[in-house]
Amino acid sequence: MNFKLGDVVQLKSGSPSMTIVEIFNNHTMASCTWYDFSTHTWNRENAFPVIALQLVSPQEQTH
Known about the structure:
With 63 residues, this protein is mostly beta strands. Helices cover 0% and strands 49% of the residues. It has strands spanning 8-11, 18-24, 29-36, 41-49, 53-55. Strands 4-3-2-1-5 form a five-stranded antiparallel β-sheet, with no helix packed on it.
């Protein structure tokens, strides 16, 4: 799947909704950031292999 900046994704194994802020390494890695509603803080960017990500529909996004 070709993700783009601003896509809302989550890990296929389960995770909060995250926003892609950078795509690199020949489109094989994506840096994502997300908001932790339990602590009311933004988590800094973490990189994930794009093969481990899936798009999240607006109805499925965690709040």
